[in-house]
Each structure stands twice: as C-alpha cells, then as structure tokens.
Design brief:
The protein is mostly helical and 111 residues long. The chain contains four helices and no strands. The chain is extended, with a radius of gyration of 19 Å.
Length: 111
C-alpha cells in the first residue's frame, strides 16, 4: 500500500492536527508533565476510543439479536458474548462517556 498526498488542501485534517498540537501544548504548559509522562494517558484514551467503537458495534448487534427461546435472555451484558468475537468488554465505569462525565480535579486518575 502506498500513501498518496491529497491533491486538494485537506482542511479537516489540518484542523484536527492544529487541535492536537494545541492540546499537546496545553499539556506541556499546564500539567507539569513531560511529553513522555503525558503520552501514556493520551495513548490510553486513544486506545479506549478504539475499544469503545468496537464494543458499541458489538453491543448494537447483541441488542438487535435480543433474547431467543433457545438462548434465553439477551447477552448484552455478558462479557463472554464480546470476548467470543474478539471484542474487549467495557464495564460501565470504563466507558469513555462515563469518563467524560467525571468532574475535573487534580489527580483524577488516582481515585
């Protein structure tokens, strides 16, 4: 596979890139962390978004399938139903939306 640069100016990518660099500048200036220290939580959040996208897709499929007479109740909250498809089961307090609702304060990661 070979990457080919877009022929037209990609403003969406430029906007995203600027937002990411601005966020990195804010982390460097206001957190007291080095880039090596803040890269771990940032990469963790990126992984969480990826895992949650797959989780949500699988959850929708399980919800659509619902319960059946042969299987019994719905398997939406059964971690094994996710693991069987190679999807990481996310508990409610590990989901991105839950983390977004947490109040801002110092050392939130040390709860």
């Amino acid at each position: 596979m070979r990457w080919v640069a877009p022929t037209e100016r990609d403003t969406a990518t430029k906007t995203l890139e600027k937002r990411l660099w601005d966020a990195a500048d804010q982390l460097r200036a206001n957190s007291g962390l080095t880039s090596a220290q803040y890269s771990t939580p940032v990469l963790g959040l990126i992984f969480l978004r990826f895992a949650e996208a797959r989780f949500t897709q699988r959850r929708a499929a399980l919800d659509k399938a619902g319960g059946s007479a042969r299987r019994g109740a719905s398997r939406v909250d059964d971690p094994a139903a996710y693991h069987a498809e190679g999807v990481l089961y996310l508990t409610p307090n590990a989901r991105f939306e839950y983390l977004l609702q947490l109040p801002e304060r110092e050392n939130i990661g040390r709860q």
